[in-house]
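hi! just following up on the protien thing from before. the input was this:
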Amino acid sequence: MKRPLFCLSLVLLSACQPSAPPAPPATPASTPPVAAAPVAPPAPTPAAEAPALSPPSFDCAKAQAAAERLVCGDAELAALDRQLARRYADARDTDPATQRGWAKGRDDCWKADDLRLCVLESYRTRLVELAIAAPGVVVPKTVEYRCSDNRLPFTMVYYNDIDPQAAVMTWGNDQAIVFPQPAASGAKYGRVGIEYWEHQGEASVDFFGNKLTCKPVE
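and the predicted 3d structure came back as:
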């Protein structure tokens, strides 16, 4: 028995259809990377605390003068004040009025162009005065000079064994305590208004505007 052509055509058409390609294998889902935990920055190292300022010999809570307030906040000046208090306590036959007069002169430094320098020289001067007046202190040899203006004698006495080191300058009847100063060469002493500089055997002196050129007497 013959099949109908219609049915045969459907069979052939079905047989000629290409087979569907196999489905690609499923790709496993990728695991998202685990975020690293944030690293905390190292704790900052605390700065070293500045050492406490040692107070002067007087009560800073009662300081009124500008010079006293300056001393209370300045380590070097406070140390000089303590040194002066000890030296004054050890001094013999020292008139208290003289010390009070010195304190008043220190407090008057507010009138100076440089308050700190004035206070510094005030302390150093008083320390030298007390050191020179102490019993048993050997007075060094006086060095005499011949100067360009020979109207008045000029001398220097160098105290190198006291603290602070100093020299006593005398011109006629005027006298001043001067202190070592930095110098590229030679020896230099001075304070406000006074300068002495010895270089290669000759000294240049400025004594409150009086300028001299001096040589030591052999």
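Confidence is low (pLDDT under 50) at residues 1-22.
Strands lie at 143-147, 154-159, 166-171, 174-180, 187-191, 194-199, 202-207, 210-216.
cheers
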